[in-house]
Amino acid sequence: xxxxxxxxxxxxxxxxxxxxxxxxxxxxxxxxxxxxxxxxxxxxxxxxxxxxxxxxxxxxxxxxxxxxxxxxxxxxxxxxxxxxxxxxxxxxxxxxxxxxxxxxxxxxxxxxxxxxxxxxxxxxxxxxxxxxxxxxxxxxxxxxxxxxxxxxxxxxxxxxxxxxxxxxxxxxxxxxxxxxxxxxxxxxxxxxxxxxxxxxxxxxxxxxxxxxxxxxxxxxxxxxxxxxxxxxxxxxxxxxxxxxxxxxxxxxxxxxxxxxxxxxxxxxxxxxxxxxxxxxxxxxxxxxxxxxxxxxxxxxxxxxxxxxxxxxxxxxxxxxxxxxxxxxxxxxxxxx
Length: 336
Hints:
Structural class: alpha/beta
Shape: elongated
Distance between the termini: 67 Å
Helix content: 40-55%
Strand content: 5-15%
Number of strands: 8
CATH class of the largest domain: Alpha Beta
Order of helices and strands: HEEHHHHHEHEHEHHEHEHEHH
């Protein structure tokens, strides 16, 4: 029995790092396997023909986040915890190694760009307990950091009545027609730069998953803001949203930004403040006309503002500003 246990542990140390999560990502012609697609289901890619290369960095982020959420319970002995830790470390290294250097650089950008606590520095500190793997991961990250890449824009959007018709009596369903295609058009070459900023105190994965939107991070409101909204005080929501947007812009200092909201709460006032604070970074601020509320005159008259009734109209105006192509406009119009 003792010999069997030793043999088992040795085998796990040798191959465990290659089997945790069965995670492999395609690089230029290699076979692709991933146990996580964008909706969390198992999926097996056998060629690059059915795999969107613009999603490689983003899917790598999702896979690593899933790996780091797996924790052993207290009943496991320390020896097995050590095996599990090493397996996870080598699984993360494998993901980094399989990404071409440029894609790895965009992976680092996407991983660090969100509003949540996840950063590459925190990943290294929390997940790499052994010297060898930590040195290897650090070298891969340093190589990618030194690789010049073009910045990509952020898309910062409200959720209710902007992407999801929550209180809109004219539309039903999980998202407004054209939502996903418009966000994909704005998200440029590498997908994963959509950030949700909502007044909701909580926004779970369920409502987001049903929309099929590829999003990076979620910033929420708080109970004080929700109460203030209910009693007619808009400042709590406005201040919280401005704070959350500033955080995203500060974490992505070189990125341009598209703002998307609606006329139901404080989005116009929030976006007017952001336009004034970051005039060279805001490409456009979109407001969805849902409730027909009066918008601030200073906001409505700004040349950066697009006020729209549906995403086909929004796409047309974005094209007029040179932000998306006519082909992308046609793809969005097909939803109507």
